[in-house]
Specification:
The strands form three sheets. The protein has an eight-stranded parallel beta sheet with strand order 4-5-6-7-8-9-10-11. It has a five-stranded antiparallel beta sheet with strand order 3-12-13-14-15, covered by helices on one side. Helices cover 40% and strands 18% of the residues. Strand 7, helix 9 and strand 8 form a beta-alpha-beta unit. By secondary structure, it is of the alpha/beta class. Helix 8 runs parallel beside helix 9 and helix 10 runs parallel beside helix 11. The chain binds zinc ion. The site of zinc ion (ZN) has 4 residues, from loops. Catalyzes the hydrolytic cleavage of the carbon-nitrogen bond in imidazolone-5-propanoate to yield N-formimidoyl-L-glutamate. It is the third step in the universal histidine degradation pathway.
Length: 411
């Protein structure tokens, strides 16, 4: 893979460059070399001699997984709504009745920083045990500055204390707060004039995201919010075309967003524009699965040349899972993606969706030593033995942090 730069597209998404019986030489937190053990002994005799050997015979070794779209920091759970949906209510009905995002907003506002930190820390432990070494975390369950800031500061503290890398996205425009109903533009102004400058000034996030959806934020409002963030150095992301087609994919290409997310009902034209602009499609099949919605057209997007990443969308309403391997399975079964494509979509392409494609997402020299060892004989078994966690060992920044499926230390 070493000659390719940028997110992988089309047939490049299938080229996963397998090294049979290979070895990886790690020094401190970096990958020094990849290849046959005998060759590493010749090229790096001193390093190999003093190295601690981890035997991964009969297993699969691959880059740590990158979960590039989560709503990691939030108060409470919403299993009652799940039960309501099973009994016939729709997601939008629940949201309009004060459930959905609004319910989590209240719970997140009411949860203290320390409790939120502890809850999120436990979630990160679970991600790590599933082989995920980098997680994106969006705010957006505060919808007021105090709580948005609390969410972002929890993520920032965890980035400093937890082995999993946590990369923050500000998403103040995740919903219109109930007290702004009918005054949506006033809330947009609050996000643009008050919240975004504070996020940038206090260095609380790298990305700026907005929920562009009928009944939430219009494409015009979304554009203003994303452009305002861009002017402050925040890279645009966008929740687009999730429930109704709304030209969100087109907008993502137009504003130069690094990625557009969901895209369940993205138009042909929008997909074309994303391919031309190189916008990464972050597809979230867990959400379609859990809401019993149509799946995004992943196969078509790849064939049209859109770089595709997939992610859990971990959140308490529409995708309460921390298992990226299960999401990979859904992408195979319901979006027509191949076994190779889902690996690319959760490693190098996901890394590029977080602007980290040069540091993580593949096992290449000089990259960060984020490596996982899986209890399967070959990569095809990963999805074949579905619904299971195959993670045996996680090496994060060159250190073993999960061994035999167990976390080695309290994070
Ligand atoms: Zn989301």
């Amino acid at each position: 893979m070493s000659n390719v730069r940028g997110p992988r597209t089309k047939e490049k998404m299938r080229e996963i460059a397998i090294v049979e019986n290979g070895s990886i030489l790690i020094e401190e937190d970096r990958i020094v070399a990849v290849g046959a053990f005998e060759q590493l002994e010749v090229d790096f005799p001193e390093l190999v001699k003093k190295a601690k050997i981890i035997d991964a015979s009969g297993k699969v070794v691959m880059p740590g997984l990158v979960d590039c779209h989560t709503h990691l920091v939030h108060g409470g759970t919403r299993e009652e709504e799940f039960n309501m949906r099973l009994n016939g209510s729709t997601y939008m009905e629940i949201m309009n009745a004060g459930g959905g995002i609004h319910a989590t907003t209240k719970l997140t506002r009411d949860t203290s920083f320390d409790d939120l930190y502890e809850k999120t820390r436990q979630h990160l432990d679970t991600f790590l045990k599933h082989g995920v070494t980098t997680v994106e975390a969006k705010s957006g369950y505060g919808l007021d500055w105090e709580t948005e800031k609390k969410q972002l500061e929890v993520a920032k503290k965890l980035q400093a204390t937890h082995d999993v890398d946590v990369i923050s996205t500000f998403m103040g425009a995740h919903a219109v707060p109930r007290d702004y109903k009918g005054r949506e533009d006033e809330f947009v102004e609050l996000v643009i004039l008050d919240m975004l400058p504070k996020v940038a000034e206090q260095e609380l996030a790298e990305f700026n995201d907005v929920f562009c959806e009928k009944g939430v934020f219009t494409p015009e409002q979304s554009k203003r919010i994303l452009e305002a963030g861009k002017a402050l150095g925040l890279t645009p992301k966008i929740h687009a075309d999730e429930i109704e087609p709304y030209k969100g994919a087109e907008l993502a290409a137009e504003v130069g967003a690094i990625s557009a997310e969901h895209l369940l009902v993205a138009s042909d034209e929008g997909i074309q524009k994303m391919a031309e602009a190189g916008t990464i499609a972050v597809l979230l099949p867990g959400t379609a699965f859990f809401l019993r919605a149509p799946f995004a057209r992943g196969r078509l997007m790849i064939d049209e040349g859109v770089p595709v990443a997939i992610s859990t969308d971990f959140n308490p309403g529409s995708s309460p899972t921390m298992s990226l391997p299960f999401i990979m399975n859904l992408a195979c079964m319901h979006m027509g993606m191949t076994l190779e494509e889902v690996l690319t979509a959760t490693t190098i392409n996901a890394a590029y969706a977080l602007n980290r494609g040069e540091q993580i997402g593949s096992l290449e020299v000089d990259k960060k030593a984020d490596v996982i060892i899986l209890d399967v004989a070959n990569y095809k078994q990963l999805q074949y033995f579905y619904g299971m966690n195959h993670t045996n060992t996680v090496i994060k920044n060159g250190q073993v942090v999960v061994q035999n499926g167990i976390l080695l230390k309290e994070q």
